[in-house]
Amino acid sequence: MSVPRRSVVFAANVDEVVGSSEEELCSADAEPSDGFHEYGSSSRLADHELKEMLLKKYSGYLSSLRKEFLKKRKKGKLPKDARTTLLEWWNTHYRWPYPTIAL
């Protein structure tokens, strides 16, 4: 039996890592209109349990990675391609860098 692979998303907030919000949790309690109530709620429950288990297991690692990434951002350097693109845009729009409203 193979286990499906899931990608890990790094987020600034623990709720974002878990992928649950108040709206999502409330919608999980509501009955779906397509008639797959049992399948939908059991898979959501399994997903929620998996997310909780992964969060408990890797929360320390994720928070240390988050702190490390926040430190790296403070340097203020962009990748060369991004810097070049921004400089090209600025050279084109430096006289009026604000979007105009077309009526």
Task: Quickly describe the structure.
It contains four helices and no strands. With 103 residues, it is an all-alpha fold.
List keywords for this structure.
mainly alpha, 4 helices, 0% strand, elongated, ELK_dom
Mean pLDDT, to the nearest integer, reads: 68
What amount of the residues lies in strands? Answer: under 5%
Number of helices: 4
Proportion of residues in helical segments: 55-70%
Poorly predicted ranges? 7-37
| Biggest pleated sheet | none
SS content category: mainly alpha
Order of helices and strands: HHHH
Q: How many whole angstroms does the radius of gyration measure?
A: 22 Å
Q: Kindly, what is the distance between the CA atoms of the first and last residues, rounded to a whole number of angstroms?
A: 60 Å
What is the count of β-strands? Answer: 0
Judging from the principal axes of the Cα atoms, what is the shape?
elongated
Domain ELK: 49-69
Family: Belongs to the TALE/KNOX homeobox family.
Subcellular location: Nucleus
Organism: Ananas comosus
Describe the overall structure.
This protein is mostly helical and 103 residues long. It has a domain at 14-76. 62% of the residues lie in helices and 0% in strands. It is built from 4 helices and no strands. It has helices at residues 14-18, 22-29, 37-73, 80-93. It starts with 13 loop residues before the first helix and ends in a 10-residue tail after the last helix.
Blueprint of the fold:
Blueprint: H1 14-18, H2 22-29, H3 37-73, H4 80-93
Family: Belongs to the TALE/KNOX homeobox family.
Domain ELK: 49-69
Keywords: DNA-binding, Homeobox, Nucleus
